[in-house]
Design a protein that fits this description.
Helix content is 64%, strand content 4%. With 226 residues, the protein is mostly helical. It has one domain. The strands form two sheets. Strands 1-4 form a two-stranded antiparallel ribbon. Strand 2 and strand 3 form a beta hairpin. It comes from Phaeodactylibacter luteus. InterPro entries: CruF-like. Keywords: Membrane, Transmembrane, Transmembrane helix.
């Protein structure tokens, strides 16, 4: 399997759906999410989270350039490994610690939401293109390691918010350090794979989505868990 070639660009004037417009749509989506969760607009508003994830992934991947077997392979592996790791973690407590999912992420199989694999896929791709942007031309070891660290750093922000709003809960009510070690153990091979398969991939919307995730959870952390 050969790595994909560098992303090709399409003149913005020839496309109605441009990266700035897509980023604006995502920014509005996440702003509405913050307002809807914090007010709250409706007690079940947060149950729209799976829809948010699907729209985010769809918008991000609509700007992927160079579709081919490497990308499809990565997306499949990211979903299967991410979901499989969470399933193993929920059932055994050996990977991330003792935790259980609530109803926010939608339908579950053996206690594990089907959408959690989409979350791993989304964060893996977004952090991968961000690492490519930050370390252009560096080896896949550097870029993959950086994107894995970015994913774990984001999880540090996500965890207390997720507990506060019922995404999942931890045994004893405390987030174990084991969780972050488990995240790194799963994220690192996935992101090394992404970096190897996509050495020149650029996606402005993916980069923006990563920072929108940071902003979304940081705002909820400050305003919603105080």
């Amino acid at each position: 399997m050969q790595p994909t070639a560098a992303a090709t660009s399409v003149p913005a004037g020839k496309r109605a759906w441009t990266a700035p417009r897509a980023i604006a749509v995502l920014a509005i989506l996440y702003a509405v999410g913050v307002v809807g969760i914090l007010l709250p607009v409706h007690p079940d508003f947060i149950l729209l989270t799976p829809l948010n994830l699907l729209v985010s992934v769809g918008v991000m991947l609509s700007f992927h350039r160079g579709w081919g077997k490497p990308t499809l392979f990565y997306l499949l592996v990211a979903y299967v490994v991410g979901f499989g790791a969470e399933l193993f973690g929920v059932q055994t407590g050996l990977l991330f610690g003792d935790y259980a999912y609530g109803k926010v992420l939608g339908p579950k199989v053996w206690g594990t939401p089907l959408m959690i694999g989409v979350n791993w896929l989304m964060l893996g791709y977004a952090s991968g293109v961000l690492a490519n942007r930050l370390l252009p031309g560096r080896s896949f070891w550097w870029r993959g390691s950086l994107s894995a660290v970015l994913m774990v750093a984001l999880d540090v922000i996500i965890e207390p918010v997720a507990m506060a709003f019922g995404f999942w809960s931890w045994g004893g009510g405390e987030i174990p350090l084991q969780n972050f070690a488990g995240w790194m153990a799963v994220a690192l091979p996935l992101q090394l794979l992404f970096a190897y398969l996509h050495p020149g991939l650029r996606n402005k919307v993916g980069v923006a989505l990563f920072f929108l995730q940071v902003a979304f959870f940081a705002i909820l952390l400050v305003l919603g868990t105080a």
